[in-house]
Give the backbone structure.
Amino acid sequence: MAKTIRKFFQLLGLIERNRFEQACDEALAKSIEALQVAPEGKGKATITLTVEIAVQKEMINVVPKIVVKLPDDKAFRGTPFFLWEGEITTQHPNQMDMLEPREVGASRHEPAHERA
């Protein structure tokens, strides 16, 4: 009598001579690594396993698939720009450019009569 497999995880361990299980371990390790460096200590990773089982006559073919979604990289924040005449600019049309260096006036610590 043939030895049968009735346990799902036993079946997964046999796929590709244990390489599928190793790939699952690597997906878990990548997820944990990405979560450890998540900005602000917050993040979410998803590991999705799909197992397709197809039959043809007396043969069953098992095809696994792993999809890993790591947290979004939020290392960069948005930078606001303005549209002016179809172009991108840092200048608001009604204000001076806040990013350009400009001359600093007299010190606010000097008395007003010395500033004039």
In short: The helical segments are 8-14, 19-36, 112-115. Residues 108 and 115 are 9 Å apart (CA to CA). Strands lie at 46-56, 59-69, 82-84, 87-89. The chain has three helices and four strands.
